[in-house]
Design goal:
about 160 residues, mainly alpha
């Protein structure tokens, strides 16, 4: 499981470097799909990672808002903080943790149950989904997107 998180973090770092070459106006520009902008998409994947890992650790999540983020550096800092917590959590991951049950109560009161393993796979695929949106937007800007090739990537 850790290797797929490492893959996602490396691709995310590549996107941060890609973003450094793009104007802040383009990073903030409202777009169709995803979370509405490049900067919001990147923030969103970090935020979802930290929310789910907080649930798995049975601790409060970091309170923040996608609307309070205005710079790429804020997203990078948030990503670094999130990654450190996730790496620490995964360092102690065992096969027995795979089938542990997480119960989440929705705002309507409905209780949802998921295995810890399913939650981790959701975090991984959720980021991959949103990174795909960044690739579409990069092409709309006529800028080559970051490669997300898993096989040819060393991480």
């Amino acid at each position: 499981m850790l290797d797929l998180f490492q893959y996602n973090w490396q691709v995310r770092e590549d996107w941060f470097r890609w973003c450094e070459k793009i104007s802040i106006e383009e990073l903030r520009k409202e777009r169709t799909g995803g979370m509405g902008s490049i900067i919001k998409n990147l923030y969103h994947v970090c935020d979802c990672e930290q929310l789910w890992v907080a649930h798995l650790q049975e601790r409060p999540s970091i309170e923040s808002s996608i609307y309070s983020i205005s710079t790429l550096q804020e997203v990078i800092d948030f990503s670094n903080k999130t990654r450190a917590v996730t790496e620490d959590f995964l360092r102690f991951w065992t096969l027995e943790d795979e089938d542990k049950i997480l119960e989440i109560q929705s705002k309507t009161g409905k209780v949802h149950t998921f295995t810890y393993g399913k939650v981790l796979r959701h975090i991984i695929t959720h980021e991959i989904h949103h990174i795909g949106q960044l690739s579409v937007w990069a092409r709309e800007l006529n800028v080559k997107p970051v490669s997300s090739d898993l096989i040819m990537r060393d991480y």
